[in-house]
Specification:
Elements: H1 8-12, H2 17-23, H3 28-33, H4 35-49, E1 60-63, H5 66-79, E2 87-90, E3 104-109, H6 115-127, E4 130-135, H7 138-147, E5 151-153, H8 164-177, H9 185-202, H10 211-219, E6 223-228, H11 233-245, E7 252-255, H12 263-266, H13 270-273, E8 276-282, H14 288-301, E9 307-312, H15 318-340, H16 348-358
Parallel strand pairs: 1-2, 1-3, 3-4, 4-5, 6-7, 6-8, 8-9
Helix pairs in contact: 2-15, 4-8, 4-9, 5-8, 5-11, 5-15, 9-15, 10-15, 11-15
The chain binds fructose -6-phosphate (F6R).
Residues 65-68, 109-111, 114, 117, 159-161, 245, 347, 350 line the site of fructose -6-phosphate.
Length: 360
């Protein structure tokens, strides 16, 4: 996008509830601001759906796509060094070849009709793996009920990506139930309160120079390139996906240290082909060499970037820190949509693709 395509008026637009509501036909903003309630409600839903513990020594596979897969990736990041068994996220038509009857497969699909996830559900059954389902309904819920597979029921009416807190908590709780990680129930409850404070700090009622609004204005008119590392790697992917789906913009995500071995070289030509901005997602507990790399990488690419931001997780526990930057990214993507005058809710390109595939 050329700089002239973003007017000064657009950038100066106040990011109030009223201006966002003008484009946000399905109140995606409201769903993001409700993240703390979603965390609490998710705990309750998992607890009422699942009674027994299953010990699955081969670990946990979370099978899902898009907004339903990200919860598994965020849960794995939040468990970090406390994961005692492999936790693997598959976004594909199949399960990893090492899946056995000693593996728990959590099939996550908000709609319950995503064909890749349905294929994984069936493969898990054929392999004799233990299964759990998290969904609002659809074919997945029907099959699970017929097979006697536990279903964690989700509330309807969201865009799948807005159910991120539900999907993350489901993956964390199932990881604990199958012995892949510790129980984080009380940490999740504390995270809900911590997130409430951040909602006040970064939400639409906060001043116009508050962090989320400032970042959204800085990214306007650019293709954001997001960098994570360790804990923040799946958060970088969440930012990219939310910018794609809410703001309807190209955006890309990569991770450190790997990007220092390839992507960093590409920044040299960034200004020849467009306006790219850089966002570095840092964490207080990141490896010191990764922090050093983040400093140096930003310094080396900044002249070729239309804007650059270094943002850090907030909070004590890993789950608080993960959710903090998920919230910030979700808000930034909604604000970007509002500044661009696009409705963040509908994703016609995704729907069109899914419809076209059903004809094949
Ligand atoms: C839409 C979204 C998508 C979906 C994906 C899978 O809001 O985020 O990425 O999550 O197409 O669909 P579900 O979640 O229904 O399995």
């Amino acid at each position: 996008m050329s700089d002239s395509a973003v007017t000064a008026v657009q950038r100066a637009e106040p990011l109030s509830r009223a201006t966002i509501a003008r484009v946000d036909s399905s109140d995606q903003l409201g769903d993001v601001l409700a993240l703390p309630e979603h965390l609490r409600d998710a705990l309750w839903r998992v607890e009422s759906a699942i009674m027994q513990d299953w010990d699955t020594p081969a670990g946990l596979v979370v099978a899902g796509m898009g907004g339903s897969a990200i919860g598994g990736a965020l849960a794995r990041a939040a468990l970090g060094d406390h994961a005692s068994r492999p936790i693997f996220v598959t976004r594909a038509y199949g399960l990893p070849p090492w899946t056995t009857p000693e593996t728990m497969v959590l099939c996550a699909s908000y709609s319950g009709n995503t064909e890749e996830t349905l294929a994984c559900y069936e493969s898990a059954g054929a392999l004799g793996a233990k299964r759990t389902v998290v969904t609002t309904g659809g074919r997945l819920a029907e099959m699970a009920r017929a097979d006697g597979v536990p279903v964690i029921p989700l509330p309807g009416g969201f865009q799948p990506r807005a159910a991120v807190a539900y999907m993350t908590v489901a993956a964390l709780e199932v990881a604990a139930l199958c012995g892949a990680g510790p129980r984080l129930t009380s940490e999740i409850d504390v995270t809900a309160s911590h997130t409430e404070q951040l909602v006040a700090e970064w939400g639409p009622d906060a001043p116009e120079d508050s962090l989320a609004k400032e970042v959204a204005r800085g990214l306007l008119g650019t293709a954001p390139v997001i960098a994570g590392a360790g804990l923040t790697t799946p958060i970088a992917y969440r930012w990219k996906s939310q910018i794609n789906e809410n703001a309807k913009l190209p955006s890309f995500a990569h991770e450190l240290p790997e990007l220092d071995h390839n992507e960093i070289a590409g920044w040299q030509g960034a200004r020849d082909v467009g306006r790219f901005s850089a966002v570095f997602l840092d964490d207080s507990d990141a490896h010191p060499r990764v922090k050093a790399r983040m400093d140096l990488t930003e310094r080396l690419i900044v002249a070729n970037a239309a804007a650059s931001f270094r943002l850090e997780t907030r909070g004590q526990t890993t789950i608080e820190r993960v959710i903090s930057l998920v919230l910030l990214g979700d808000l930034v993507s909604i604000y970007l949509a509002a500044l661009r005058g696009v409705d963040p809710g509908p994703v016609p390109a995704i729907e069109e693709l899914k419809d076209a595939l059903t004809q094949q």
